[in-house]
Amino acid sequence: MKSADYWRGRFSLLEDAAHVRADQCVDGLEAIYRDAERSVQADLERWYGRFAANNNVSLFEARKMLTTGQLEEFKWNVDQYIKIGQQANLSPEWLKKLENASARFHISRLEAVQMQIQQQIELLYGNQVDSIDSLLKEIVSNGYTQTAYEIQKGLGLGWDITALDQKKLETLLSRPWTGDKKTFRDRCWEQKAGLVSGVQTTLTQGLLRGDSVHKLTESIRGRFGVSRYQAGRLVRTETTYFNAVSSRETYKDIGVEQIEILETLDGYTCDLCADFDGTVIPLSQFEPGVTVPPFHPHCRGTTCPHIDDKDGERIARNADGEVYHVPANMNYKTWKATFVDGGDKDGLTPATVAQIVRDYDSEFGKKFGKDHYDQIRDRVDACPNPQLQEVWNRYEGQITVADPHHNGGAYCRGTNIYVGINGDAKARKYFAPYSTLFHESGHAIDGLAARLGTPNGQWHFSSTYKNGLFPTTIKKEVDDWVKGILSDMKAHKTDFQYWVSQGWITQETADYYRICGGGLRITKSMAFDAVKREMQSLTPLQMADISDILEGATRGKIVCGVGHGAGSYWTTRSYNGIDWGLGTEAFAEMTSATMSCPESLAVIKKYLPKSYAVYEEMLETILAQP
Fold first, then answer.
1. What is the rounded CA–CA span in Å between residue 133 and residue 127?
2. What predicted TM-score, i.e. pTM, was given to this entire model?
3. What does residue 566 show for φ and ψ, rounded to 5 degrees?
4. Domain residue spans in the chain?
5. With left for phi above 0 and alpha for psi between -120 and 50, is residue 58 left, alpha or beta?
6. What is the pairing mode between strands 280-282 and 324-325?
7. pLDDT tens digits for 250-290?
8. Three-state SS letters, 537-582
């Protein structure tokens, strides 16, 4: 089972992602507000230009009625406002006010410009509500499935779930959660009324004072600035709340019973939030604003599941429908298509009750300890090769951990393995976590299954299977690879630039041969070196396992730097014409790569596809035996 730090880390990332979307929404609102400010400023400047005397419009002048021609123009504008308002789905109250204004016979200059300004504000808040509504629906909908994904991936087990439908989304969005019983839509309309009233007051007072158009527009811009800040605060606070709501719905549906409060701890964190961080409460006490974030405006807190081993077992065993192992490398898109959108489960391994409930009294559980055993089983349960997973589950209990804290090089002797588990648990330059454990266990399994192959005197199944087919296939596949390069070299013997493009020689060497004339004296060692260069161009994790296989296949003629070297290790591990040393090392390397390192596995499958196919055949043969 994953540790508390794992859950805190994953759910902190989910909260961060939600607030990135919130910030994008705020940026969009900023642009809408700026556009509205510019439109209001333009309306005021035109109005001043029309009625000002000495760059000033008195309140007395502003309250004069429009002339007949001006009134006709105003009514035409109002008709346009109504059409735009209907298209933008503005409030019925505002549309009714426009219709009433259109029917009036007397309108003052001040009323006319106030109507113009309010039209801009109505459009502004209509867009604001739409933007926030869209954001929060996305936060709740995506948050629900993202939370389910993180929980199932953390458990290593997946089952079908149903996404929130539109009706459920609307219900959640329309439910007030604050003490004043107001929804985010209520707050938007309340803030709109405040801005309309504030702008009209500022306009009237400015005219009374005889302010210039510049001073008046600056004052109105200040009013917009306050509303813009309020909009940003609303977006961020509601994002925290609805992110919490989406998590609560997932916790409830999946069966999480306890949650932990997770706060962003930095220089901006308030004492209240800092004190709540790490608090564990029952899901039944989930109450945003009281027991879980948001505790205040701009709050950035969230929650994460508080799951121990028994909780994980209970959740998986109570799941509706069949439960499958979730591979460690399954991304959100694939998971959603599989478990939310009704996709097929081809390639996934059903989880048995025995796999869901881990045996910490087993040999590996006792010798390595619970934390390490959970990490090992997480990788086994998420193994992308179902046959290897089943082989492992069959043989794990037959492997003896002779020394779990071995100093020096790890090794396997018979069914006994000697590893330094604490060091192996850490990611290293050439090795993924627990790769050595899987490598040495691969040797043990190879020995335990030897009886299932040909009785040819060999000690490992990798050499007894079809009388040494596995090492023979590897040697031939590598030899064909080398011969292919050698043939290509000979075909381009005098094309030095081609050699440079293939990475066989440097540009400096090519220039030297071009000046001297003639071609290159091509030998097989040059092809070996070309393979070595190609492997060393990969990342250390990609290269590590195949490096040892190439050494064994060529008896040390290709040495990439990771493996048993070019000495007698390979030449002395042969019996009756079968290179059993190559066979068992390749079996162990492929086991380790499949279990613990996707990068290495991809390289093995790319360069040695026939050999890996034989490896998979061997796994199927092992499983077919009693």
1. 10
2. 0.58
3. -105, 10
4. 4-155+167-242
5. beta
6. unpaired
7. 999 888 999 999 887 777 788 888 888 889 999 999 998 89
8. CCCHHHHHHHHHHHHHHCCCCCCCCCCCCCCHHHHCCCECCECHHH
